[in-house]
Amino acid sequence: MRLFWFALLLVLNFVILSNGDSIKASSRPDVVNIGALFTFNSTIGRVAKIAIEAAIEDVNSDSSVLGGTKLAITMQDTKCSGFIGMAKALQFMETDSVAIIGPQSSVIAHVISQVANELQVPLLSFAATDPTLTSIQFPFFVRMTQSDLYQMAAVADVIDYYGWRDVIAVYIDDDFGRNGIAALGDQLEQKHCRISYKVRIPPVSRVSRRDMLDLLVKVAAVESRVVLLHVNPDLGLKLFAVAQSLGMMGNGYVWIATDWLSSVLDSSWPLPSATMDTMQGVLVLRQHIPDSERNRKFYSRWKNLTGGSLGLNSYGMYAYDTVWLVAHAINTFFIEGGNISFSNDSRLQNTGGGRLQLEAMSIFSGGKLLLNSILQSSFLGLTGPIKFNSDQSLINPAYDVVNVIGTGFRRIGYWCSYSGLSVVPPETLYGRPANRSSGNQQLYSVIWPGESTVKPRGWVAVNNGKHLRIGVPYRVSFKEFVTQVSKNDMVKGLCIDVFTAAVNLLPYAVQYKFIPYGDGHKNPSYNELVGLITTDVVDAVVGDIAIVTNRTKIVDFTQPYIESGLYVVAPVRKLNSGGWAFLRPFTPQMWCIFAGFFLFVGVVVWILEHRMNTEFRGPPRNQVVTIVWFSFSTLFFAHRQNTLSTLGRLVVIIWLFVVLIINSSYTASLTSILTVQHLSSPINGINSLMKNNEPIGFQVGSFTEHYLSEELGISKSRLIPLGSPEEFATALQRGPKNGGIAALVEERPNCKFRIVGEEFTKSGWGFAFPKDSPLAVDFSTAILTLSEDGELQRIYDKWLSKSSCTSDSTELESDRLHFKSFWGLYLSCGVAILLALLIHIVQLVLQFRRHFPKEPDSASSSTSQASSLSRSFQRFVSFVNDKEEQFKNRSKRREMDASVSSEENRDESGRSPKRREIEIL
Predict the structure, then answer these.
(1) pLDDT tens column, 348-368
(2) Contact residues for 142 (Cβ-Cβ < 8 A; gap 6+)
(3) Is a pLDDT exceeding 70 seen at residue 155?
(4) Distance CA 505, CA 513 (A)
(5) Cα separation of 728 and 721, whole Å?
(6) Interatomic CA distance for residues 695 and 683, integer angstroms
(7) Which of 255, 533, 663, 893 could connect to 282 by a Cys-Cys bridge, CB 3.0–4.6 Å?
(8) List the disulfide bonds (predicted).
(9) Which helix (H) or strand (E) segment is 196 a member of?
(10) Taking the mean position of all CA atoms in its chain, how far away is CA 432?
(11) d(CA 561, CA 794)
(12) What distance in Å separates the CA atoms of residue 771 and residue 555, rounded to the nearest whole number?
């Protein structure tokens, strides 16, 4: 019986397990439908079609990938038409496809992504590079290639690497072109570069040669010579041919093509020699594919698949990897319990008749799970590691930088988002610390258009008959700098000579004409003159234009060609030496301190020498005379008294050193006063001018008024505009009390007056150009060249030597010698003297206490205590007044008397009375 139940149990288990296996197997269908959408007859499509078919074959032949399930793919040709592409994409939605590979066009991707979002079907594009196709707006769009956001970052790094600042963008006017160029503009802005000119090409199937010719003629009329071409392959090749016919593929031009050209070179190489001739020296970006053994095997297989008639480009390899990504994701989808099922969208029911059966489209129930499986996939494909970041973009974006040369092309470096430009493959750099410093950016040498190895400057001054309009100030004062010659309307001056010399050094011809600004009666406002650049009245401003902050905000300046700054110019008077000139080297304070120190040193030396030096003793009157004589005789090092004590000698040595320095300073200052003409002014500089309320003059039109009022906070009511040197002189001579001014703040001193104080601003004169004008850079280089070869100095000498003041070397009165110049010396000397005096006093007190012990206390009143202190003080004074030798002799006699008295008081037993008293007690 037990055997029967055991056999029955085995049969039931077998049946249950068999049913479970059959249930599990039924969850994996035999065939899974996917779609592919691209243009078959295109540079990318021809390669992608073969790559997708090869990938489907490889997946279906490997049972370990889908566990027996096969992929069935339906390919639709969009025929380079956005409308047809949208219609074909909607047909996929009627066939229960779980994923769509494509589309190739970014324009179609925008529309189809909306449908994919609604029906929850993942859309995997291997060629749509529009950076605005983001996961936020289109969560079911998966980009299986690199976004143009990274490609434009690579272009910006290349432009910055070569030092160019302006770029011309030629692009197709659709989502692919516009959004790519917008990304380039953002990247260039971070590099302080810009797109100076945009050429939009209509997105039509055929653009006539005449239209291309018209567009490129406009490009040739722009100063920039760096051209970026962001179009489709067929249009790009035609543009190169037209550019060559216009001479735009020669010296001076820079052409950069995005990866559309690398796709042509990779898939159609070798191109006809006539086609290659039209693109010599072009820089091209190509999506970087790491070298591997798997890639080399696939390249060999590709030759068999195509018979060598078609090359393999990066988009074809991404298309191959896309099929494998879908296969891995579907396998993960089944493992995680996913089930392929579709449900109708109620919103598409009853939409009306017609052949377009919208109600046939259904929502993929497992779409979100399959999308999650796709984004979490990670495997090694032909293009390298296939893995997505949080933005649903492939990791490690990288590009090759290629130079078209002869009948082929040469890779000159790499770009990756990790480290920028390098000659080392990106996969090698990923194992090193990231380094995007400018010194780490590297590329190999380039053969530029025109077969030149010299890096193009990137722009030229266009010679189209248009002259540069150069604004110059029509000055009525200081005409040596710049002014118009009334007779023949010529402009001349130092600034004009510097400008023409700089123009002659430019490596290109510049046609220009001067436009004077001003009425000829007063100097014009320089702020207004500079502002004419921003309103396109003039193209540049040349003159004595100071480079100041408010001007640099609206224009660019060249390198300063002359230094300038603001000075305070005031009336001065000559100082004659006079009969009391010998007192002028020192200020009254200095004289008082000097005399006080003489007496102080004399008293200290007397204290230190009084007890042991007979030359410092005698009647009080003689001692006072000795102190005064000794003190002031040290001024001439003629003191006759010798110092015997160590401390006294130390004090005298220090004091003599101080006297030596002060004596030398006095002699030098007095010599200057008696031999050099000196000037005096009540104004000492800008600080003293700011403290009073007297009127201040400035030159009309200069930046001085703005600086004094806005920067220094001086009231505008104090500022008096003046127009010429004659007005300067008249106003200064009158003075503030007679309707004139106290001082003039100006960039240039007047010969009749002098600069007081120091220069309180530091700037220079430069030529002004519009913001980001390349002319400013080239003129700066020319100015530096003029400075280095001495031509700039020769121009200065030509215009300034004749009008320079003959007494320019005469300066205002030098500051008199103040105590602040010697306080450290006095402090050191005073400390040393006080320290010596303190040591001497301590020695006296110790000697006094040792030889004159304190009397024993007795029951006494306050009167007796005061009397005791008075006696002690008198004894101390007498002790101090004693000679050292007398004191020592008296001390010896006192000790001998004390010894004799002690002997007389001893008894026969040799005991003193005090000892006997102790024994009795």
Answers:
(1) 555 554 555 555 567 888 889
(2) 122, 123, 124, 125, 371, 374, 375, 388, 392
(3) yes
(4) 18
(5) 10
(6) 12
(7) 255
(8) 751-805
(9) strand 194-201
(10) 26
(11) 13
(12) 5
CA distance 872 to 780: 88
CA distances, 857 to each of 853, 864, 865 (Å): 12, 10, 9
DSSP β-ladder status, 408-416 and 398-405: antiparallel
> Which among 699, 815, 695, 676 has a CA at the least distance from the CA of 749?
699
366 and 376 in contact (C-beta within 8 Å)?
Answer: no
- The gap between the terminal CA atoms of the chain, to the nearest Å, is 135
Taking the C-alpha atoms of residue 285 and residue 314, their distance in angstroms, rounded to an integer, is 11
Secondary structure string (H, E, C) spanning 436-472: CCHHHCCCCCCCECCCECCCCCCECCCCCCCCEEEEE
* Alpha-carbon gap, residue 694 to 547, rounded angstroms: 28
Strand order in the sheet with 696-699: 719-722, 696-699, 743-746, 567-570, 754-756
Distance CA 373, CA 378 (A): 10
Residues contacting residue 184 through CB under 8 Å, at least 6 positions apart: 152, 155, 156, 167, 169, 195, 228, 230
Residue 600: closest CA among 635, 627, 625: 627
Query: Which among 375, 339, 352 has a CA at the least distance from the CA of 96?
Result: 339
CA distance 154 to 419: 11
pLDDT in tens, 511-543: 889 999 887 777 888 889 999 999 989 999 998
Distance CA 191, CA 160 (A): 7
SS3 745: strand
Q: Three-class SS of residue 545?
A: coil
Helices (H), 206-313: 209-220, 233-245, 259-268, 273-277, 293-306
Single-letter amino acid code for the residue at 400: D
Vertex 271: Cα angle to 269 and 275 (nearest 5): 150
The strand pair at 555-557 and 754-756 is best described as: unpaired
**3-state secondary structure at position 163:** coil
Token pair of 156, please? 């910006």
% of the chain residues with pLDDT over 90 = 35
- Record the pTM: 0.65
Tally Cβ neighbours within 10 Å of residue 113. 21
DSSP state of 709: I
How far apart, in whole angstroms, are the C-alpha atoms of residue 756 and residue 410? Answer: 67
* C-beta of residue 101 within 8 angstroms of C-beta of residue 326: yes
- Residue 447 half-sphere exposure, CB side, CA atoms within 13 Å? 13
Tokens linked to 570: 């005031």
H/E run at residue 364: strand 362-364
